[in-house]
Amino acid sequence: MKPVTIIQALGDNFIFLCEYENDRVFVVDPGSSAPVLDVIQKRGLKLTEILLTHHHWDHTGGVAELKHKTDCQVIGSDRQRMPGIDFIANDGEVLTIGNTDVQVIATPGHTRTSVCYYAQPSNNNESGILWTGDTLFTGGCGRILECDAKAMWQSLQKLASLPANTLVYCGHDYAVENYEFALGIQPDNQAVVQRLRELRGAQSQGRQTVPSTMLQERATNPFLRADTAELRSALGMVGAAAADVFAELRRRKDFF
User: Fold this and answer.
1) Other C-beta atoms within 10 Å of 219: how many?
2) Domain count of the chain?
């Protein structure tokens, strides 16, 4: 698969355009149709599939027009709350899109039916690609809206188990804010200090803050590190269960 095209829309949303073979593409979470149509028309591409991570309007708002204008197929996990779905994305299923295998990973937490998509590498020289919607962000995670903290923690652990070189493409550009929060929790964490410096530099130069890698997220994202002694100590929760530490982190971030 060719490098992912990042389209910024609706302020801080990311839409991802993924070219896989013979000028055919799929799109992940098109919250708006206009920027997607602009790219595919300028580049002479054929939109064949839309992958949806969850039902919120800022991830699905462009689906109806894109489907009408391109006759593409829509794949998502929630037929009742996602418009125009043709195929249901079931946990563990592997979608074959051209020469690309994409695994569906159920990640309840932000919503009950949230899923992520993992494009498996075709050889040892490639990195897998993970589209996380509003489950995992660069340096953060989504708000818990329809489940409990334990469910979200378990979902994040599924993602954290993917290979270290996995490229992580999240649904929103919250990276700098997330690492400012992380630094407030652990002001002496030099890995977090460095990551925040890198991301501020990227923003100041007009570069995107995605993708990150799973290695970076494991090392610096506090929401993936709720099972560590360092986070427990920083929150004054020595001996607490990881899910409880995670819940406290998420509660603090909600009011950050």
Assistant:
1) 15
2) 1
